Each structure stands twice: as structure tokens, then as C-alpha cells.
């Protein structure tokens, strides 16, 4: 799938996929929301407003209030692609979120997922 198709997908659809992945592995919606808010700078209310709107996944990241500066500490692979090597900056932000949700779903403690020292 090319990047533009992903950028145009509705945030709510992607959110449901991410949430279901984490919940199937015993994590909570609150934890998923915490991860998303940590990465993007949205408040819980802001995230819920975005989910209720028809915002695209690309615009969700483009309009993020404050991308977390610690996100560059996220390393590893998602679907065989190293997140730190993704050339397109917008796609890299999306891959960061994929990686964080993967780590959450694999049982990693929330403090470690959020790169707390």
C-alpha cells in the first residue's frame, strides 16, 4: 500500500485496529490512549474529538499539537521495516505509533513503552 492511501485513511479506522491489537493481548483502551497522547501531544479530550471527526490519519499527525521529542528514541522493526530508517517523515511518525502499540501488545511495561528513564 502506498503512503498516500495510508495518509488518507480515517483515523477512527486505524485507531480501532490499534486498539483491538492491544486489547486482544490484555491491554486497556486507557493504555492505548496514553501512548497516543504521549506521542502526539493531544490531550484525552483532543484525541476523542479527533476520533469523533472524520480526520485522516495523515492530518492527525500533521496537526498534532506537540510531537514528543523522545520519539526519536523509538527503535526497531515493524513489518520488517526499521522505524528509524523510514524516509518519509509523516510515515515515520505513523510507524513510531505502530511500534509503540506493538510493544504494548507484547506486554512491555507502559513506562518502558513511553521511554521513561
Polypeptide structure, described:
The mean pLDDT is 95. By secondary structure, this protein is mainly alpha-helical. The protein is 58% helix and 3% strand. It has 7 helices and 2 strands. It has a two-stranded antiparallel ribbon with strand order 1-2. Strand 1 (77-78) and strand 2 form a beta hairpin. It has helices spanning 3-8, 11-24, 29-40, 44-52, 57-62, 89-105, 110-113, and strands at 77-78, 81-82.
Q: Which term fits the overall shape?
A: globular
Order of helices and strands: HHHHHEEHH
Quote the distance from N terminus to C terminus: 36 Å
What's the overall average pLDDT, rounded? 95
Largest sheet: 2 strands, antiparallel
State which percent range the strand residues make up.
Answer: under 5%
Kindly name the structural category: mainly alpha
Number of strands: 2
Rg calculated over all Cα atoms = 13 Å
Strand order of the largest sheet: 1-2
Helix tally equals 7
Low-confidence stretches: none
Secondary-structure blueprint:
Elements: H1 3-8, H2 11-24, H3 29-40, H4 44-52, H5 57-62, E1 77-78, E2 81-82, H6 89-105, H7 110-113
Helix pairs in contact: 2-6, 3-6
Q: What is shown here, in short?
A:
The chain is globular, with a radius of gyration of 13 Å. Helix content is 58%, strand content 3%.
Pick out its properties.
mainly alpha; 117 residues; 58% helix; two-stranded antiparallel ribbon; globular
Amino acid at each position: 500500500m502506498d503512503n498516500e492511501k495510508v495518509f488518507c485513511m480515517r483515523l477512527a479506522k486505524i485507531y480501532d485496529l490499534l486498539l483491538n491489537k492491544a486489547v486482544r493481548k490484555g491491554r486497556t483502551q486507557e493504555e492505548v490512549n496514553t501512548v497516543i497522547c504521549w506521542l502526539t501531544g493531544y490531550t484525552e479530550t483532543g484525541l476523542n474529538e479527533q476520533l469523533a471527526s472524520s480526520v485522516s490519519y495523515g492530518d492527525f499527525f500533521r496537526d498534532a499539537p506537540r510531537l514528543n521529542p523522545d520519539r526519536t528514541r523509538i527503535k526497531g522493526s515493524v513489518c520488517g521495516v526499521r522505524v528509524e530508517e523510514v524516509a518519509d517523515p509523516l510515515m515515520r511518525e505513523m510507524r513510531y505509533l505502530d511500534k509503540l502499540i506493538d510493544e504494548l501488545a507484547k506486554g512491555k511495561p507502559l513506562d518502558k513503552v513511553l521511554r521513561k528513564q
